[in-house]
Structures are given as structure tokens and as C-alpha cells.
Amino acid sequence: MGAGRFACVALPFALMVCSIICIFIAMLSGIANKNLYMFELEAKNLSISTSNILGVDLTDGVQNGLGQINDALSPNRHNFSASELGLSDYYKVNLWNYCSYNATKKNEQTCTKGKFDWASSSIDLTHIKQVVQQVSNSNNATVPEPLNGSLKTFKQVHKWTQVVYVIAIISSFLTLFLGIAAIFSKVASCITYIISGVATTSLMIASSMATAESAIVIGSVKTVKDEYHVNGHINTSWLAVTWIAVAFSIGAGIFWLASICCCSTSSGHSSRRSRHGDQEKLIPTGSYQRVDDPHHFNAGVGGGAFSQGTAAVPMQPMNRGNGAYEPYSHQAI
């Protein structure tokens, strides 16, 4: 493995680590960090009448006597506040739980335990219905269908947002694991690139769902802000974290692709040794001298038939009569 290959793989590996860190920060909001959340709802100034949020069955008023009919026909006689409905002043909604607190005790947040599909069990209007039933003297007060439909939609979307985030974090960790093998093999780089694509795609979908979910909820709250005196806002810091995770994941995928196409898995030392071996197989380009033949007729100085103790005869190429010349040795003179 060469240093270039290591550097080529180390960059997307580091980018994927950064993406995982950002995913964890977003996913653990409300659990590890109570100051980070998806969006916040403000119910401190809530003022809502029985006719605006809950329907009252008039049959109860008839059955309870003429004195109750007037109450049933006039549900606007009472406006409910957040404290009357058992609501906190503020709610911070997170991926795995929610936190609530009152305006006078902002530092004393109460957070539910993190769990999968928390919205299905935590968003329950039973207590609110009971309060309204007591005030309106009606036993059949029900939540209007539009509100019920909105809550059901929120629960389903939030649950699937959790599922896609889990897929994103698992595939991101798998990318890191395969990235180690990608240092030594382009085939492993190819597999890592595919898994990285799954991680990036799932993370983009999860971030998009979380963004859309937050925007829809806060948008709905803004439409009734003046009527019910409620408010809310999206936490852009949380959205920034999850979309930065997407950016890191995309960058990692690009460099995983580059590690397949551009970076060699062989080291520079091996390449130099290979080139050196090829050079040894080539015919040298320096000076040559003849190689003694078996009969020593062309021996050099100090040997052969022409030496005989006298000065050596200078060696010259000899034509043996068949057009061929004596071979030369590979030793330089």
C-alpha cells in the first residue's frame, strides 16, 4: 500500500466520520443536549374556547335537564388556558422525545425518555377531553376530525423519520468498516462507494422528512396564532446540523469514487523495483569486449593461443566465414 493510496482513502473516511458525528448530534437532541431541538411550540398565552377545539354533543344537555341546554348551546362561555388543560408553557419536540417547561422555570425542563415512536403514546388528548367535558357538562365531547387527522399524520411521519435516520446511521457505520478494506483494494472501494450512496440517500431523505415535518407543524401553528394565541418556531441550528451531515456524506461519496478511479493500490517502492528489474533485462549500452570461445582462440591478455607469454594481440571482431562475428561480453572495458 502506497502513501498516495492511504491519503486517497483517508479523506473520505474522515468526511464520513464527521457525518456520523453530526448525525449523532441531531439524533441525540433532547437526550444528551436539551438545548438542541427540532422545533418549539409556545402555549403560554393559549386561549381556546370549547367551540373552537372540541365539539359538544347536545343530547347530553337535553338529558341533563333544561338548565344544561343553555350551557350546551353556548360553548363559547369559557376560554381554556394552557394551565387549565394541563399543558406546559413551552414544548421542545425532538427526534426521540420531547421536553416541556414553564416560562418561570425555563431551566427546569422535563423530558420524556427517548424511545422509538414516542409520538404515538405521548400525544394523547384524553386528559384535555376530560377537562372540557367537566367544564361543558357534556359526556360526549370529542376532538374534531381535522385535528385528529393532523395528529395521526404527524405520528406516522415522525415514526418513519426515525426509521430512516436509523438506516442512515447504520449504513454510515458500515461505510467506515468497509473503508478500512478499501485502503488495500479497489474492489473494496467500489463496495464502499455503493454503501456510502445508501447512507447519503437515506440521510437526505431523513433530513428532508424532518425539515418538512417541522415546517408543516409550525406553519399550521402560525395560521391559528392570532385566534388561539399560540406560537412556535423551527430550530435552524438543528436543521443545520442534519444538513451538514448530508454535505459531509456527499463529499465522502465523491472521494470514495475517486479512490476507485485514480488511486493505485501498489506502492511506489514496488513500482521502482519492477522498473529496475525491467532494466536488467535490457542489453547494456556501454563498451563491450569479446567473450572467450571454448577453444580459447580469442583469449584476452594473459591467456589464449595468442598470448604465449608475449604481448597480447589486440582483439578485433573476427569473421568466421559464415557472416557471423564473435560475441561480445557484457563487461565494460
Automatic annotation (TrEMBL):
The keyword Membrane applies. It comes from the Eukaryota. The chain crosses the membrane at residues 6-28, 163-185, 191-218, 238-258. InterPro entries: SUR7/Rim9-like_fungi (IPR009571), SUR7_domain (IPR052413). The keyword Transmembrane applies. Keywords: Membrane, Transmembrane, Transmembrane helix. Pfam families: SUR7. GO terms for cellular component: cell cortex of cell tip; plasma membrane. This is SUR7 family protein pun1.
